[in-house]
Amino acid sequence: MSLELRALRADDAGGARAAHAELAAEDFAFLPFFDAEEAWDAYLARITRLSRGEDLPPGIVPWTDLYGVVDGVVVGRVSVRHRLTESLERVGGHIGYGVRPAYRRRGYATALLGAGPAVAREHGIDPALVMCDDNNTGSATVIERCGGMLENVADVADGRPKRRYWVPTR
Ligand SMILES: CC(C)(COP(=O)(O)OP(=O)(O)OC[C@H]1O[C@@H](n2cnc3c(N)ncnc32)[C@H](O)[C@@H]1OP(=O)(O)O)[C@@H](O)C(=O)NCCC(=O)NCCS
Q1: DSSP labels for 35-46?
Q2: For the whole model, what pTM was predicted?
Q3: CA 135, CA 158: separation in Å to the nearest integer?
Q4: Domains plus CATH for the chain?
Q5: Per-residue pLDDT of the chain (170 residues; tens, 9 = 90+)
Q6: Of the candidates 145, 141, 165, which has an alpha carbon nearest to the alpha carbon of residue 154?
Q7: Cα Dmax for the chain
Q8: How far apart are CA 51 and CA 79, in angstroms?
Q9: Ligand 1: which residues within 6 Å by Cβ?
């Protein structure tokens, strides 16, 4: 598997925008704070500032994104939030990830989530909270393959019970 993990770049616009559209159809926000009207370079500059904690909206914490790239094509991403909020404790957790439909079942999500703990550890997180919908069999398998220990399945306001796992980061 030749999966490269890195930050988004100027030449990723096409693949990343396509990934965003594909995952939006599954109710998953691939590109954070994405605005389709905005020029790509401006988006990259804005998201870099926000992720570092500059000019963040209330309730949003700094985070690190790593994008999975195969042969120059953006195929997935993992996000590590640098701390939990009350909202992230209920939905989202420390680490989230998604893979484009055409690139699934190749181990990319396992590799993406597998890269998350080292980033989380840099921010003093151990263990990391990782969550998925109770009926998301694929995601639950990925989390368990990455060492996730199931704490509980919690009912939340959106009516989709969440499996709450803790993944050690060291
Ligand atoms: C869930 C998701 C991340 C899995 O991505 P992926 O790259 O296909 O995952 P992997 O290839 O690493 O899968 C690892 C294992 O999980 C299991 N798995 C993955 N998708 C599955 C599915 N749809 N049904 C059943 N098992 C599945 C398989 O056992 C798989 O291993 P195998 O292919 O050797 O059998 C992807 O389907 C996705 O992005 N979904 C939409 C967004 C999402 O749900 N993100 C997670 C939110 S917490």
Answers
A1: -TTS-HHHHHHH
A2: 0.96
A3: 14
A4: 3-167 (3.40.630.30)
A5: 699 999 999 999 999 999 999 999 999 999 999 999 999 999 999 999 999 999 999 999 999 999 999 999 999 999 999 999 999 999 999 999 999 999 999 999 999 999 999 999 999 999 999 999 999 999 999 999 999 999 999 998 878 999 999 999 99
A6: 165
A7: 42
A8: 10
A9: 26, 28, 96-99, 104-110, 132, 136-139, 141-142
3-state DSSP call for residue 86? helix
Choose one of 99, 100, 108, 167 to mutate for the ligand 1 pocket test, by most ligand atoms within 8 angstroms of C-beta: 99
3-state secondary structure of 49: helix
- Which residue's alpha carbon is at the smallest distance from atom 27 of ligand 1? 138
Helix (H) or strand (E) holding 141: helix 137-145
What atom of ligand 1 comes closest to residue 111's alpha carbon?
A: 12
